Amino acid sequence: MFFNTHLPVARSDKYMNAREVIEFLMLKPGEYLIVPSTFKPNETASFILTIHSREETCCYENSNSNEQRYEPVEKVTKVKNHQDEENKKTFFRQYSDKYEEVDAEQLQRLLNENILKGEMKSGGFSLDACRSMVVLIDTSITGKLNSEEFVRLWNKVTKYKETFFLTDVSKTGTLSLSELRNAFVASGMKVSDDMLSLMALRYGASSGHMALECFINLMIRLDCMKKIFKQLSDGKSINLKESEWMYVSMYT
Q: Whole-model pTM?
């Protein structure tokens, strides 16, 4: 949005793929925004910016500002449908055990072979990811999901799948760093650049792009952690006993 209304006053003479770029500029006194970039789009990289000036110069970084402005992104809204809930429970009973529960292995098959079949570009949900989701959703602490817990998980998977495809504007089946930021905004969350990069490193591929199942796993984990924080904090900070810290560590 900024560049739609502000023309650049200077730029690199040649846009080249080099480790170091040096420019000498004559500028009028004022406030300027310097925007480093990677050679290829949608890449993440570290950089060092050095400014030498004859006059006294004041500089600051604004990439992690809490007042950072975000591009408008459509949010996913879901209307509760009781018939749909019953249909999901009926489907669940077809694959659950005699106690009407599913474990991580059964959940993996349901997600990869039924619920998200044909929509994932990579190998699908790993068994470890499904174990993690069972722990996050299993409020009864049985190590398995009952019908209510399964439907709640299914609704989350559907919600975050819709968010994923809504923000995958490049139609690659993965989210770049900028698309991932938009996905957070569409989910009602705002994260700093550092946290965004950390999540891309933790849940994304080596290229920095994030597949559908990795995004869903990340969002379900974040949703759970937000609820735990609200339960254990005063809204601003949190002090944990050892038993509470061990409880939280099970989800991270």
A: 0.68
